[in-house]
């Protein structure tokens, strides 16, 4: 039956109010906390009487030896304190091993501090964590197999091997007995890494670092700053699998590096033993290319005019090649993107191939990077890209330039090896028309020369001659075509043009020859034996057809034909042009087209400097009977 009456508290039930119970629990908590504090203080106060410094010294020496697998010696225990945290400080720690009957010193630490467990110390087996190493000097050898030859059969080495055996994908370290480490601080250290295969050595000085590694199975994070060749470097590193990383196996990392003039961030799956990259995101920013190049101690031909640069890419290992996908880069103010692949090849140099698109391309810089010394930019030739790798790349550029000449909508292909280069430029907008070119070079640094074939259609001839900066004198104006086939020898082509040989053709349907006044020339030729071309006047020679072909070699060009037809007269030239001396040695004839009304043709010699040559009329031969 349902009870509808008042609730009656059963006999024996507590009548103590809730507030009283809370106060009782609070008192108990305060008592327990106070007891814990008193016991902790009592243990620390009694520590110096219950724990021997010799026990701590022996224990930490044994602990270090167990960790590294090497012999450890300690000069003295300078301090053992128990308040506020139990800590031991040691002086003069030396790591060594015996090989071939001789003692080999691997590292020294001037001063080492470590915290230890109080309870474990009372039991005579203190455990240590949170280390501080002052002025350590460590020497590590990278063996021929890519491993770091420093630990022997110690705890760290065993944990590394266990981690390598327990995880194949780098996702977990396993238990590793959960040995507690804590943090490791390094103050004013020096680390030397020597590569056994090459004999190369790298020393980092003034190393200051902080490493957070709670236990062997835990992730590791750290940061460090140091000097390499007196240049400052800063590094941060995070990895969930530090033991695999130490063992050289593929491990996930996130790291950043700051060098003079540049910063880089890397994130992905890498292996240190064989420099393996499974996947890696790269983000590089170079704020000062010259400063960064000095920091690395390298300079590359073609980068002399680079001020800033950046690179973003996803690098992946595709079994037989490294692929750079999602590639984005910027050089100075020009952006670009594309995809590249770097393929190692047995007994050959690596091959870099792919497709790149850029906003702007400096053709002169690209030629410099391929060892093609167009000018004399440096007294000492810089190493070229083709010293280390072969190249097979397709290029496109919204705009490009060579010297003062602009190009647009450029498309090119480049195949470059140590002893040969083939550069092909397809139909590209140039000076109002199009240009196509093919450059093929051979020999180490092109000491066997190069072949150049160039064809220009519908270009502005005035812009061409102006850009060539010929130094004054007559010049062309109009629209026409230019064909050039040349053999180039040696380096520094602009200052060594005597080594060029080949053939040049120019044709045009209409235009004018500036600073060539035909009427003034006829007038002065009637009574002067010679005169400067400029004295004839500043008029121009308007033509309706121009056809010029010259063959050149050893610094001089031979005019095969030069016929310039105006509306009512024709100018024809023959002779040689010693272009290496910017001179002329030509014979010219100016004649009327209409033979019925034609005056006697004017024949003349043009000689001297081409900026203002001398005209010397050639007398007409007397007719029979005169």
From TrEMBL:
One of its GO terms (biological process) is regulation of protein targeting to membrane. It comes from the Bacteria. GO terms for cellular component: plasma membrane. Residues 388-557 form the AsmA domain. This is AsmA protein. Residues 1-21 are annotated as: Disordered. Transmembrane segments: none annotated. Coiled coil: none annotated. InterPro entries: AsmA, AsmA-related. It holds the Pfam family AsmA.
């Amino acid at each position: 039956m349902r009870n509808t009456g008042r609730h009656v508290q059963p006999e024996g039930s507590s009548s103590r109010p809730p507030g009283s119970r809370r106060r009782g629990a609070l008192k108990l908590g305060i008592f327990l906390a106070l007891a814990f504090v008193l016991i902790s203080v009592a243990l620390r106060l009694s520590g110096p009487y219950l724990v021997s410094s010799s026990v701590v010294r022996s224990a930490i020496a044994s602990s270090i030896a167990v960790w590294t697998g090497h012999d450890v010696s300690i000069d003295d225990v300078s301090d053992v304190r128990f308040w506020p945290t139990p800590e031991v400080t040691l002086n003069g720690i030396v790591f060594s091993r015996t090989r071939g009957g001789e003692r080999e010193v691997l590292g020294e630490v001037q001063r080492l501090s470590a915290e230890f467990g109080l309870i474990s110390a009372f039991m005579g087996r203190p455990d240590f964590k949170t280390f501080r190493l002052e002025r350590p000097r460590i020497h590590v050898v990278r063996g021929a197999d890519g491993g770091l030859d420093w630990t022997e059969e110690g705890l760290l080495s065993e944990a590394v091997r266990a981690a390598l055996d327990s995880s194949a994908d780098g996702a977990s370290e396993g238990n590793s007995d959960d040995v507690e480490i804590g943090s490791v601080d390094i103050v004013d250290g020096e680390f030397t890494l020597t590569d056994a295969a090459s004999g190369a050595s790298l020393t980092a000085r003034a190393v200051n670092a902080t490493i957070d590694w709670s236990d062997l199975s835990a992730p590791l994070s750290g940061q460090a700053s140091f000097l390499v060749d007196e240049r400052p470097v800063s590094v941060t590193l995070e990895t969930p699998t530090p033991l695999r990383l130490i063992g050289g196996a593929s491990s996930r990392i996130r790291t950043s590096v700051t060098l003079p003039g540049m910063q880089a961030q890397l994130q992905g799956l890498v292996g240190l033993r064989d420099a393996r990259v499974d996947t890696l995101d790269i983000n590089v920013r170079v704020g000062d290319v010259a400063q960064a190049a000095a920091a690395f101690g390298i300079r590359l031909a073609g980068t002399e005019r680079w001020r800033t640069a950046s690179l973003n890419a996803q690098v992946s290992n595709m079994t037989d090649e490294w692929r750079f996908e999602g590639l984005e880069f910027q050089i100075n103010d020009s952006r670009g993107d594309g995809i590249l692949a770097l393929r190692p090849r047995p007994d050959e140099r690596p091959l870099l191939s792919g497709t790149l698109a850029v906003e702007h391309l400096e053709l002169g810089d690209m030629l410099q990077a391929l060892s093609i010394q167009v000018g004399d930019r440096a007294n000492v030739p810089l190493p070229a890209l083709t010293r280390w790798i072969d190249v097979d790349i397709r290029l496109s550029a919204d705009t490009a330039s060579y010297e003062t000449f602009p190009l647009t909508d450029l498309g090119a292909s480049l195949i470059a090896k140590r002893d040969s280069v083939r550069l092909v430029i397809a139909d590209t907008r140039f000076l109002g028309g199009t240009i196509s070119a093919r450059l093929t070079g051979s020999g180490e640094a092109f000491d066997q020369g190069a072949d150049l074939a160039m064809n220009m259609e519908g270009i502005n001839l005035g812009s061409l001659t102006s850009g060539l900066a010929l130094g004054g004198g007559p010049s062309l104006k109009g629209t026409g075509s230019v064909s050039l086939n040349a053999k180039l020898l040696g380096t520094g082509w602009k200052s060594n043009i005597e080594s060029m040989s080949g053939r040049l053709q120019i044709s045009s349907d209409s235009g004018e020859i500036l600073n060539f006044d035909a009427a003034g020339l006829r007038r002065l030729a009637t009574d002067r034996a010679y005169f400067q071309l400029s004295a004839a006047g500043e008029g121009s020679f308007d033509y309706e057809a121009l056809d010029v072909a010259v063959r050149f070699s050893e610094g001089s060009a031979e005019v095969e034909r030069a016929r310039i037809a105006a509306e009512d007269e024709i100018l024809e030239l023959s002779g040689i042009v010693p272009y290496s001396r910017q001179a002329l040695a030509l014979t010219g004839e100016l004649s009327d087209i209409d033979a019925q009304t034609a005056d006697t043709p004017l024949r003349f010699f043009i000689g001297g400097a081409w900026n203002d040559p001398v005209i010397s009329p050639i007398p007409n031969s007397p007719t029979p009977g005169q």
